TrEMBL record:
The lineage of its organism: Eukaryota, Metazoa, Chordata, Craniata, Vertebrata. Residues 224-325, 329-425, 521-616 form the Fibronectin type-III domain. It comes from the Eukaryota. The gene is IL31RA. SMART domains: FN3. The keyword Glycoprotein applies. PANTHER family: INTERLEUKIN-27 RECEPTOR SUBUNIT ALPHA. This is Interleukin-6 receptor subunit beta.
Length: 877
């Protein structure tokens, strides 16, 4: 309680000082506090002068990290100071923030970081190392994890004893913030009465260890020795001499023990020899025996005092070789034979390696290669190389090849290999080969047909490898099983493996297989090609997955296909099938298809493709096209026929109906009101008829017709001249020109029809009467009149023609034409038969004397005319 009042007093003082001199908006006390975990935390927030008098301590709110602290933990000291109390604070580290809230807004004033931890524990496990005449280093472990900054002090105490009285110890200290501290030379005492103590301290408390006595001789550690020389002696095999020096300050009066470690470059293990060095000796020598000839060795040395427990570090390794001699082992030789060229030559790739089960004897300077035809040793050739491979160009004969390694002391034994001729055939000795793997090894087994064969060569290489020199091989004797570590192979890679039997110094025909040490699902799936779908089927094609992405042997392909909105189906085929036809598909339906390639480890699907089946297949198109094609051919033929026979079809189906308004058959005087020209169907006959411009009623028409018939029957006064004139018409008809008849018939037929009367207007009469009216000498009488009428009737016709000629001479017609062009019986017309042979007397004869023939009508002025009905009858005759 007293401490709280002190804090409040300090805060009030600081608040008053801040109001006068400080420009800060707020302050928080204590700043960055460190408290014991689980204790109570109390903080104060002081407002600056900037916020008064509008805001005060009641506007202050507190947050722990991002969480608002409850109001019951607040305490208002005065208008500018607010405090917060947090009970049982267990956070390792947290931020407490002071905000001011005004008009609904929060503004951060100040914040601080609070840490909680524990007091330090008692340091333990004190140990020291004395690097002679360099430094004394001690290490220890803390008693507990404090989570707070802790400092350590190392005390070194030297106890002085003078007789029975113990004097005050001499103490040296070393400060550190870690769990290690060192005393450096020359501040390093040496004696038996030493003890070490460690004291730990933080804001929550202190802790000290006991003073632990340590013997300096037991903690001495020498510096690594220095190898002065490592050499061989001429003429002495398998021996190396090493000479080294111990640091002067490490010898003292005690004996020193040293260890010599040596190993050759072809071995992973080392051997150690121990050597004792007498006290006071600085340089020592030792002979390493039982070594390999001409083999390079690496040598290192370390030393320790006989009283100490700590070895020095190993010195730097030095290398030297033993005495050299000629290689005693032949090389491991193999070959790859390429196919023969058309010229008969072939490339032979030779490769070799040093045997791994015995060391080389000396440094290999190079290799000598000799080859000659099997049947002619005199043609021997020699090559030298420093590489472990060579390419020879040989012909089709069998060859013997030998390879020897050499150094300064001599040559190794020759490794001999026979190359068969190109036409040489060897029997198949190996019957079957199989591979399987275990957790650590890959195993190859085979069976043979000749048990007497005891030597084999196993060859393997990656399937995608094209360099013949990249192949691996191994000779096997007296076994039909070969195994090697799986680490010698790449995972998920296909290997070609071959087993060659060696029989009677000849390499027989191999047996080859492919294998994977480990498989996984393919890296990618096949891409489907749907091609051109049909109505109910489609052929799916795909390509093989590239070899570098198969990751195993493809066992099968599965085709998955699904109609739009339907259920997914699938078909599985063997690995050698690269196309498949899906049948029983729905017509005019969209499908999604994809293909999955599978091996023993799993399957991978390719990208999905979509296709749509056709609505009709080829047969449907043919069945539809044939009728349509035949119909089109029929319509085309009908159209061509219509084009060629259009006049005939037009005449039969659509006969020409002349338009009376457009008639140009005759031309009347300008004062004529109406006319009609009509052509008899009889060849060579032209009749010019003039239609009556006034049409009486039907009853009047009938009375006129009856009057004509009476006049014709009652006429008895016919003179001889008129009969002669009728005869002249007959002669004229018989002698008429046929050509003129045909042309005129065709021209007039276009404008006239015996069954359909037509009208000629007054304007047409005036404009065309003179040009269209045929002269009397060209007119031909109607044949019907000649054959069917009696002499008295012919005389009446003659008289009527004279009357017609007189009527034509009139310049004006005042009558108007009234008729229905579509009703034949309603037509009221009159025809005038005009002839040049009529006498002037006849022409001038009074119209009242004219005789009306049957079929003729009498007009109002007494002029007779022929109706179109009579012309039709004449035509029928």
């Amino acid at each position: 309680m007293f401490n709280c009042w002190i804090w409040i007093f300090i805060l009030l003082c600081r608040s008053s000082i801040a109001d006068e001199n400080s420009t800060r908006d707020a302050d928080i006390f204590p700043s960055s506090p460190e408290i014991e975990r689980g204790s109570t935390l109390k903080l104060f927030c002081v407002l600056g002068k900037h916020y008064t008098p509008h805001r005060n301590a009641s506007h202050i709110i507190w947050k722990l990290n991002r969480e608002l602290i409850a109001q019951e933990n607040y305490n208002i000291i005065n208008e500018t100071v607010s405090s917060i109390t947090i009970y049982n604070f267990t956070h390792n580290k947290a931020h407490v923030k002071c905000f001011i809230k005004y008009l609904g807004k929060e503004q951060l004033l100040v914040h601080t970081e609070v840490k909680s931890g524990f007091p330090p524990g008692t340091p333990r496990n004190i140990s020291c190392i004395y690097d002679v005449d360099i430094k004394l280093t001690c290490n220890w472990t803390s008693g507990r994890e404090t989570n707070l900054a802790t400092s350590y002090t190392l005390y070194r105490k030297i106890m002085k004893i003078h007789g029975p009285i113990m004097q005050e110890p001499k103490i040296s200290t070393c400060q550190s913030n870690t769990e290690s501290c060192s005393f450096h030379y020359p501040n390093i005492p040496f004696g038996d009465n030493l003890c070490f103590q460690v004291k730990a301290e933080n804001v929550l408390g202190k802790a000290s260890s006991d003073c632990v006595p340590i013997n300096m001789e037991e903690i001495e550690r020498f510096q690594p020795p220095e190898i002065l020389s490592l050499k061989k002696y001429a003429g002495i095999k398998k021996l190396l001499t090493v000479t080294w020096k111990i640091p002067e300050k490490s010898t003292r009066l005690l004996d020193v023990k040293c260890q010599i470690r040596y190993r050759n470059l072809y071995s992973n293990s080392s051997e150690i020899d121990t050597v004792m060095v007498a006290s006071g000796e600085e340089i020592s020598t030792y002979n390493l025996t039982g070594l390999w000839d001409c083999t390079e060795y690496l040598v290192a040395i370390r030393c320790i005092s006989v009283e100490s427990k700590l070895w020095s570090e190993w010195c730097k390794e030095e290398a030297a070789s033993t005495e050299e001699k000629a290689p005693s082992e032949k090389v491991d030789l193999w070959r790859v034979i390429a196919s023969s060229s058309p010229a008969g030559n072939r490339s032979v790739y030779l490769m070799w390696k040093l045997l791994s089960n015995c060391p080389p004897h000396g440094r290999i300077l190079g290799y000598k290669i000799q080859h000659f035809p099997e049947n002619n040793t005199a043609l021997q050739m020699t090559n030298f190389t420093s590489d472990k491979k060579i390419t020879l160009l040989l012909n089709e004969e069998a060859y013997i090849i030998s390879v020897t390694a050499y150094n300064s002391a001599g040559n190794s034994p020759a490794a001999i290999l026979r190359i068969p001729s190109t036409d040489e055939k060897s029997s198949q000795i190996i019957e079957a080969v199989r591979t399987f793997t275990t957790e650590e090894e890959m195993i190859l087994e085979w069976t043979v047909s000749k048990p007497e064969v005891t030597e084999y060569v196993v060859e393997w290489y990656e399937e995608m490898e094209t360099d013949p020199f990249s192949r691996s091989w191994q000779y096997i004797s007296n076994s039909t099983k070969w195994k090697t570590n799986k680490k010698n192979f790449k995972l998920f890679v296909c290997y070609n493996m071959s087993v060659y039997p060696i029989y009677e110094n000849k390499v027989a025909a191999p047996y080859s297989i492919q294998t994977y040490v480990q498989e996984k699902e393919p890296s990618e799936g096949p891409v489907a090609d749907t091609g051109f779908p049909g109505k109910n089927e489609v052929t799916i094609k795909w390509n093989e997955i590239s070899k570098d992405k198969r990751n195993g042997f493809i066992s099968n392909y599965t085709i998955f296909y699904k109609p739009e909105g339907g259920k997914e189906l699938n078909e599985t085929v063997n690995s050698d099938v690269l196309q498949y036809t899906l049948k029983s598909l729905q017509a005019n339906t969209q499908y999604t298809v994809y293909i999955m390639a599978s091996n023993r480890a799993g399957g991978t699907s390719g990208e999905p493709k979509t296709f749509k089946t056709l609505k009709f297949n080829k047969e449907d198109v043919i069945f539809i096209a044939i009728p349509v094609g035949l119909s089109m051919l029929f319509l085309l033929g009908l159209w061509i026929t219509c084009i060629m026979k259009k006049h005939l079809f037009k005449k039969v189906c659509w006969p020409d109906v002349p338009n009376p308004a457009e008639s140009v058959a005759v031309q009347w005087p300008l004062d004529a009101s109406m006319g009609v020209a009509c052509e008899d169907k009889t060849r060579g006959l032209e009749n010019i008829s003039i239609l009556e411009d006034c049409f009486p009623e039907v009853e009047h028409e009938g009375s006129l017709l009856m009057n004509r018939e009476k006049r014709i029957s009652g006429s008895t006064d016919i003179n001889t001249n008129e009969a002669q004139n009728i005869s002249e018409y007959k002669i004229t008809l018989l002698n008429s020109d046929k050509k003129i008849h045909d042309n005129e018939e065709q021209e007039v037929a276009k404008h006239l029809s015996p069954s359909m009367p037509y009208i000629i207007t007054d304007q047409d009469f005036r404009s065309q009467i003179h040009s269209t009216l045929i002269p009397a000498k060209k007119l031909q009488p109607i044949k019907m009149l000649e054959d069917d009428l009696s002499d008295s009737q012919q005389i009446s016709i003659k008289n009527e023609e004279n009357d017609n000629e007189e009527v034509l001479s009139r310049e004006d017609f005042s009558e108007k034409s009234l008729f229905n062009p579509y009703l034949r019986n309603s037509v009221k017309t009159r025809e005038f038969l005009v002839s040049e042979n009529l006498s002037e007397h006849s022409k001038n004869e009074p119209k009242s004397q004219a005789t009306v023939l049957p079929g003729h009508r009498q007009n109002v002025v007494g002029q007779s005319y022929i109706t179109l009905d009579m012309v039709g009858l004449a035509t029928a005759h």
